[in-house]
Hints:
Elements: H1 16-27, E1 29-31, E2 36-38, E3 52-56, E4 59-62, H2 63-71, H3 91-114, H4 121-135, H5 139-148, H6 154-175, H7 183-194, E5 199-211, H8 218-236, H9 242-249, E6 260-265, H10 271-278, E7 289-291, E8 294-307, H11 311-341, E9 344-346
Helix pairs in contact: 2-3, 3-6, 7-11
Amino acid sequence: MAIRTNPGRRLGRTTGLFTTLIIAASLVLSSPVLGAERKAKLPKGYRQLDGIAAVVGRKIITLSQLVRAQAQNSASQKLVPTRQSVRPRNRREMLRQVLDTLIDNLLVTQAATSLGITVPDTEIDGHLKKLRDRNLWDMDELKEAVRKMGFADVAAYRQHVRAEKLRVKMIRSKLGSRLRVAEAEIKRVLDLQYKGGTVEEELHSRHILIKVPEGASPVVLNRLRDKAWKIHDVVQAKKKSFVDAAEEFSDDEGTEYGGDLGWMRRWMLDQTFAGTLWSLKKGQISKVVQTPFGFHIIKLIDRRTVKAKNKRILEQMVRAQLMEKQFAKLYEQWIAELRRTAHVEIRI
């Protein structure tokens, strides 16, 4: 989604620290990360506390928040998942991608707040308890873990969890009741693509997996993503064969020679992985794809039609695909509506 500026509204009068932030950052916005430099003399008595990346309603997103979010991989933390990681052309474009996500998230949070939707402390406490129990952490280990995730302390992580849960509640409240997949549509897809549920496709593929350790820090995550893209570029440029690259770089020890996954049916695979694989043409190599297992580079070798093993599994798969597609469409329409009716001003 493109980032747009809505000139239709203006902020009301502000005072105190908020005014200091806006005036100072409006006059001075210098960041080597963004590759841009605009300098102006500050009025007497003012000092720059932080730059402003965007204004959303009466809230601001600071440059430090933006850079921190980029380090935390916030671009891939959308509540409505994307099918593939989209590689930015440069660091500035990456920051704009992250900013786009931060703006959308803030708009959803503001909508939830306006409706009086809240997340009680007990729900946050429960989340932290599950996290500690699952990993057998004491409090000191929890503090170290959230620090590695890019948060200043446990309080900052609690705030993050609250915001995420608040957005989930708002999305369910706004869109959940509107999701409707007609049985006739499921039947239409089954008839069109699977001959009424009697046949299905098997795809033969290879992949290169760069595994992400559980609880990896943002620094490690970004390093592994960069590694995956470098491997992708080498293979795409045919400087090294896919098989040789898989043998040299892939962390998936469960595959056959050269990252060979053999023949697989769609419902057997991770949804994001399958969606990418099924979109490829024979011999084509995918972009870098992120799943819960790590970063993948996928190559489609061949495809064939085989007898379906279970019609009910196909029905469930088609229903899930239609629900996901409808949900993503509704979400994008809703976000566009929120952006049209809110003041969104980009400052970078």
